[in-house]
Amino acid sequence: MAYELDLPKNGKIHNFDVEDSISNLCLSEQWVVTKLHELIDSVTSSYERFYYGEVGRAIYDFFWSEFADWYIECSKTRFIRKEDTSTIVCAQAVLLYVFENILKLLHPFMPYVTEELWQALPARNSALIVAEWPKILLPRDAKAVEKFENLQALIRAIRNARAEYSVEPAQRISATIVAAPEIQDYICKEKTVLAALSRLDIENLHFTHIPPEHAKLAVHLIVREGLEAYLPITDMIDVSTEIKRVSKRLAKLQSEYDAHTKSLTSPNKCADRPKSLQAAQGAIGTSGTKVRGGREKPIRRKERKNWLTAERDACGTSGPKRREPAEPGEKGSDSPKQNGTSGTNGREPTGSPEINTRSTEQNGTKGRAGRGSPKKPKANKIAPRVIGQMRDKEAHFGRIGGFCPKRFGTSGTKRREGRERAGRPAD
């Protein structure tokens, strides 16, 4: 059944810029219009401060989490239940009012898509890009928001209970709502929304001030202060089927437990373990050395500590060895008198002990105060293979008289001998 809207020439159905226009709406419409007016203020302020990320997040959250998930689903009950024409037309007006304002807010982000959707709306004679920006500081109803949030919490609680007991989505169950008089008044008016979104049997949906007689055989849901719900357990599950399911799972868990216990107490596995672990197994009734998270059990940590202590005792120290300072007369001492320097400023001497213990007279240098030890000659670290190759090249170039003493480190005597062998006069 379709309902045509009597649209004025400007395309506007209702004007929600006064308090009376909101107070005359149903609870769902009051809630969504109030949330839209709050969104307009927030988005406009963020646009002025160039907080485009906040704008996108706010519009996205409102469009999907509030408008699409809740109000559109609530508005469907107006058409499915075939309520009076005024209620249906009011729901259509709110849907159009909210959607066109969302397009205006989204137009800076999505100009082409929003323009196409705008032109598809009824009675659009101008483009969206030249449309008037939504006004700010529009009226809102905070009490309506609080009331609808109580309705949302009740619907969520019933949905969670259905999911916990694995109730089929198509199965409708009965419910008894226990609420204070002021809460019961507005929830009872929205019982069609409650029954549709919670999959309840509207004919067996009751409202009362005291718990029902079958309270002990029902699932008790405490939603908020002054708002509770009782769902009969017989409507949610088949008792005999549930007993079979639970018994089958219990038998499976018991068999797994017996298998693990048998494996842990097997003599073949216990014989391969150290005696200390076998003793620990008998004391604590387990054979593992690790627990969840990789943490070692106390018996394992104690063995490791004892092993480390034995290792330190064997080395004769409780920690890493430290280099003891040499006596003034010993070889390798860094004494200024022994090394012929003014001190090494606490640094360890480098190089071989023979080089470090040479005096300044042997090195042909004089110690200078404040500059540390004199430069020490480097030890010859050339590999024997390289020395052999140098000797071969020396003999080759010596025969032709082209040997370079600076490159290969040979003396001038070998150079002269090479020239004589080649028939050239010596230098």
UniProtKB/TrEMBL annotation:
Keyword Aminoacyl-tRNA synthetase: yes
Region (Disordered): 257-427
InterPro entries documented for this protein: Anticodon_Ia_Val, M/V/L/I-tRNA-synth_anticd-bd, tRNAsynth_Ia_anticodon-bd, Valyl-tRNA_ligase
UniProt cross-references to Gene3D superfamilies, sorted A to Z: Isoleucyl-tRNA Synthetase, Domain 1 (1.10.730.10)
A biological process term (GO) from this entry: valyl-tRNA aminoacylation
GO molecular function: ATP binding; valine-tRNA ligase activity
Keyword Ligase: yes
CDD domains listed in its UniProt record: Anticodon_Ia_Val
Pfam families, alphabetized: Anticodon_1 (PF08264)
Keywords: Aminoacyl-tRNA synthetase, ATP-binding, Ligase, Nucleotide-binding, Protein biosynthesis
EC annotation from Swiss-Prot or TrEMBL: 6.1.1.9
One GO CC term, this protein: cytosol
PANTHER family named in the record: VALINE--TRNA LIGASE, CHLOROPLASTIC_MITOCHONDRIAL 2, VALYL-TRNA SYNTHETASES
Taxonomy, superkingdom: Eukaryota
Full protein name: valine--tRNA ligase
Domain named Methionyl/Valyl/Leucyl/Isoleucyl-tRNA synthetase anticodon-binding: residues: 29-175
Catalysed conversion reaction: tRNA(Val) + L-valine + ATP = L-valyl-tRNA(Val) + AMP + diphosphate
Compositional bias segments (type: Basic and acidic residues): 321-334, 414-427
Biased composition (Polar residues): 335-365
